[in-house]
Amino acid sequence: MKKTVAIVFGVALLVSACAGERPANLGVTNGNLAVCPDSPNCVSSQTGDERHRIEPFATGDNPDAAFARLAEIIRRRPDATVIDSTANYLRVELRTTFFTDDAEFLLDRERRLIYLRSASRVGYSDLGLNRRRLEELRSQFRAENSQNLQPIP
Fold it and tell me: pLDDT by residue (tens digit) across 73-98?
């Protein structure tokens, strides 16, 4: 029994250590999301660095409705917790078994785009998980936009 308790306690410590602390540098500054670090465990639609670059989401003709749909898609995900939500910004924690990633979405109504950024809290490489997860969200977003007859350029 003591051995089982020790193992469970050890695993809980490992999991909490891998989750990392919530970053203080996230949010919007001068219309931009935080810059990705040099490590490959981050993607952003606001960088020119091809290693980290991911395309923003196109909103179609109704940016506010599209952003609201994206927020709803994210809220339905069992691996997501919304940390901050405004009319044009969404900050989310995305969890795996051992790690927590931080994702951000910024609505640009004028350009009809949603900028995005996602980064792992700990470690050097995420083996492409942030990119794959955001591309999965893009697919869901496009499908829901097309169901709502919103054209996507």
Answer: 999 999 999 999 999 999 999 998 88
- What gap in Å lies between CA 134 and CA 74, rounded to an integer? 11
Q: How many CA atoms lie within 13 A of 31 on its CB side?
A: 5
Q: Which domain holds residue 84?
A: 2-147
pLDDT tens digits along 34-73: 999 888 889 999 999 999 999 999 999 999 999 999 999 9
The partner residues of 100 in beta bridges, in order of sequence, read: 95
CATH number at residue 137: 3.30.310.200
- 152 belongs to a structural domain: no
Q: Alpha helix (H) ranges present in the chain?
A: 2-19, 63-76, 129-147
